[in-house]
Here is the input.
Amino acid sequence: METHADLPVLKEPEPKKKSNVRLIVILVILFIALLAVIFFNSPLSKVTDVQISGTQFINSNDVIKYAGVAVGDSYFFSSASKIEGNLLKNNSIQQATVTKKFPGQIKIQVQEYKVVAFELAENGDLMALLASGASLLTSSDRMQIMDKPILTGWQSDDLNKKELVKQLSTIDSALLSDISEISPIPSQAFPDRILIYTRTKFEIITAISLFSEKVVTMNGVIETQSPGRLTLLLADTFVPFPQIGVAENEEEE
Here is the structure.
């Protein structure tokens, strides 16, 4: 009998699964990239509203400038913490809280440093002096909130004025409520000597370096005596105003 050699069995080609998977992945990536491009160029990815609250003297436009964010900017590229950090670089702002609400809304709440005094500038503008040492322009329609002393006669670069503002920021506001005006009257012995006028018609002479320790004595005299001139330096003296007039007449005679 004749024998026949076995013919090799031809294998069917395997389906190109890997190539198909790669193609699908590439298509998905391209689709996602296309959606991202469309989204980041749409109004949904932009800041559409910036709300400012808590300001008393700082202009809202200035707050937006300090924050580094404005309507039309990317909503996602500035985090709330970054905006807060930008705001706290300004020495007028003590605290800042930023809340982001999608789509496009950013709420900024700021707390300014407390006002310790006011000052009339050379051009007549009313400036608010803050505990941080910053000064901010205010307006005449805010005059009703002026329960703080007004500083008059000071040079803008006077270091004693800066120290006075620092002292005022550390003293209980209740102890300062009667003070209406503070002016510099330096002497050789006390270069930081000041003259204080009160709303109850007292005149107080003291020094900035002594003010925080003398303020309680000052209020004690104001609460128990009639108006007069009170000196609070190394020694404390008080002379009621009628006696001041009598003393001056006696000296003239």
